TrEMBL record:
Residues 12-308 form the Luciferase-like domain. It comes from the Bacteria. InterPro entries: Bact_Lucif_Oxidored, CmoO-like, Luciferase-like_dom, Luciferase-like_sf. GO terms for molecular function: oxidoreductase activity, acting on paired donors, with incorporation or reduction of molecular oxygen. GO terms for cellular component: cytosol. It comes from Chitinophaga costaii. To bacterial alkanal monooxygenase alpha and beta chains. Pfam families: Bac_luciferase. This is Luciferase-like monooxygenase.
Length: 334
């Protein structure tokens, strides 16, 4: 599909402030900052947090607060949301929060928006109250955010201060073709969650590109793909480290969620054939291995998808191993 090399695409990180077994949310925030500082020195373009709720392994629920924490302790890397689940929030509040972040850290804040709840139905009801149909208003809410950020809104009765007149790039996040059509229609960059919803990835990005309408923010389509990455010195060690993620996804499949578990040498006692098949389907775009094998798989992925940016998310129990994986991944693009 394209002849670009890895050195011609941007590389970034998605973080869920993963809580590991035996550690606390506070520990995960400290680990995130160490990783973000390392990513900045290694040339990563952006560091995003994802909004999730009521999950024992995920501490990124107060997403905008973590963005401020990372942006305030780094210098140049872009920091943002991958994403804010917009139906959980009033657009005005999001505009004010991200207007505050962009005022504090100008030119460094991204606002990625999703329409999923980032939680189960019980939690969604607790967050949204009577506003359970909010997802259906997602396109209108995105437009309202754009209005709040525009300088031309300065004479309106309802204004976002801070936020008004600031350059805060909006991204549409998605895991289906619906989001692709919306991103194309609005002329916004498109970030696809291929790290857990790979089934419609290729079809969605084709729809996005085929239907893209240029906007004030973006003249040509721009696709970011999030993928799972675990790298180590050898394939065998990377595959062992990746069993932590396999255990986490098995917990998602079975509804038995817990903090990220240490790696194991054998998964056979943890899952059956049906759970393994479900996990492997979710992990279609998983790049686990040493430098040579991951490079070959990533080059094939880039050739097939033609994405403009690859965002890595890495569920690794040992934080030194996680940072080493981050280092090895950056080396593929340099």
């Amino acid at each position: 599909m394209n002849n670009r090399s890895l050195s011609q695409v941007k590389y970034s990180i998605l973080d869920l402030a993963t809580v590991t077994e035996g550690h606390t949310a506070a520990d995960s925030f400290h680990s995130s900052l160490l990783l973000a500082k390392q990513a900045e020195t290694l040339g990563y373009s952006r560091y995003w947090f994802a909004e999730h709720h009521n999950m024992a392994s995920v501490a990124s629920s107060a997403t905008s607060l973590l963005i401020g924490y990372i942006a305030g302790n780094t210098q140049t890397i872009r920091v943002g949301s991958g994403g804010i689940m917009l139906p959980n929030h009033a657009p005005l509040i999001v505009a004010e929060q991200f207007g505050t972040l962009a005022s504090l850290y100008p030119g460094r804040i991204d606002l990625g928006l999703g329409r999923a709840p980032g939680s189960d139905q019980l939690t969604s009801r607790a967050i949204r109250g009577l506003n359970m149909q909010a997802a259906y208003h997602f396109p209108d809410d995105v437009q309202q955010l754009q209005t709040f950020f525009s300088a031309s809104n300065s004479h309106a009765a309802l204004r976002a201060i801070p936020g008004e007149g600031l350059d805060i790039p909006i991204w549409i996040l998605g895991s289906s073709t619906d989001s692709a059509r919306l991103a194309a229609k609005m002329g916004l960059p498109y970030a696809f969650a291929s790290h857990f919803a790979p089934a419609e990835f290729m079809r969605a990005i084709k729809i996005y590109r085929d239907n893209f309408q240029p906007s004030a923010q973006l003249k040509v389509p721009y696709v970011l793909a999030c993928v799972n990455v675990v790298m180590a010195d050898t394939d065998a060690e990377a595959l062992r480290l990746a069993t932590s993620q396999q255990q986490m996804f098995a917990g998602i499949v079975t509804g038995q969620r817990q903090p990220l578990q240490p790696p194991v040498n054998d998964m056979s006692s943890i899952w059956n054939d049906m759970i393994e098949a479900s996990v492997n389907q979710m992990l279609q775009y998983a790049f686990f291995g040493g430098v040579d094998s991951v490079r070959k798989k990533l080059e094939a992925f880039l050739a097939a998808s033609g994405v403009d940016e690859i965002m890595a998310t890495s569920y690794i129990y040992d934080q030194e191993a996680r940072r080493y994986s981050c280092q090895l991944f950056a080396g593929l693009f340099q």
